[in-house]
Predict the structure of tRNA N6-adenosine threonylcarbamoyltransferase.
Amino acid sequence: MADEPLVLGIETSCDETGVGIVRGHTLLADAVASSVDDHARYGGVVPEIASRAHLEAMVPTIERALTQAGVAARDLDAVAVTAGPGLAGALLVGVSAAKAYAYALGKPLYGVNHLASHICVDQLEHGPLPEPTMALLVSGGHSSLLLAPDITTDVRPLGATIDDAAGEAFDKVARVLGLGFPGGPVIDRLAREGDPRAVRFPRGLTGPRDAPFDFSFSGLKTAVARWVENRRAAGEEVPVADVAASFQEAVTDVLTRKAIRACRSEGVDHLMIGGGVAANSRLRAMAEERCADAGITLRVPRPGLCTDNGAMVAALGAEMVARGRTPSALDLPADSSLPVTEPHVPAAHDHHHPHHGHGH
Ligand code: KG4
Ligand code: ZN
């Protein structure tokens, strides 16, 4: 439909320079340039390297997306960009680029929330999100259960991790096992050859008196590290695939159990899973099985749209336009700790923007 908004989205919150173009709920282009190889030898994302890589990749990636979509920049209805949360310097590159394009083209600018974008991207795959949307958001920096009556204005946390994020746990366990960075994809691959019942690792915060919708993965990470250490100290070989599979089983067991409990408790008949960890094959399979048993419809974007990309930002931007939300001001700040409760950053004169967030 030609009357749906044509929106360009820019994502630079971590190590992926993502540029997406959508028309309403239709994905037209998804261009991603990753600096992950530049970080691998440091065992984690180095902010300065990420910022520099974004700067170098920005214009070529935008041009690639425009070519892929077969549209001209002047045809765009709006420019959307991740305003936060994320690495401050990395965000700044995307926000500056978005401002420049919006200003030069005379189009509205939408500074949007990275986390709400991870949810909204599913509209490109499975059509309009139900309202409210129940979402399990699992990435490198965040793990939350969110209830969103309106993804453009109203996102409510039901629970979140009290220590490590799910993706962070994958990355740390991969380091313990000497598997490199990022850990999620390697563990996912290796676990297929392992026995998920080889080691019974702890399921954090699953006791009857624990917060039902909060997560804790730090104890699990420590348990894996200790188990591996003991093996090595005894001079025994570490069954890496079994450990990877058993660790992955513990994470996905807790995530799916709590997500389904949240659906039941809120009377919601569907579950959306988003963020980099949603690319995990075991999480997808287990969620599929358990949701089917519980009579819950599962919505998970394809793996390439779960990890960071620009299409998700464009998707949320398009929703902002479609619902007539106020654009951001051209002095839009990058906010490394933008709270999950703020799907977008409207112009300052019509919105008080309190800072009560937690870090990335
Ligand atoms: O959403 P994302 O791309 O970036 C952030 O916003 O953090 O998520 C990155 C995280 C990393 O911790 C990475 O190890 C994890 O997602 N990840 C996975 C998989 N692919 C990426 N974790 C488990 N299994 C995967 N297949
Ligand atoms: Zn992300």
In short: The chain has two domains: 6-121+309-350, 130-301. Residues 123 and 129 are 6 Å apart (CA to CA). Residues 6-121+309-350 form a domain with the Nucleotidyltransferase; domain 5 fold (CATH 3.30.420.40). The beta strands are 6-11, 16-23, 26-34, 78-84, 109-113, 133-138, 143-150, 154-160, 270-274, 297-299.
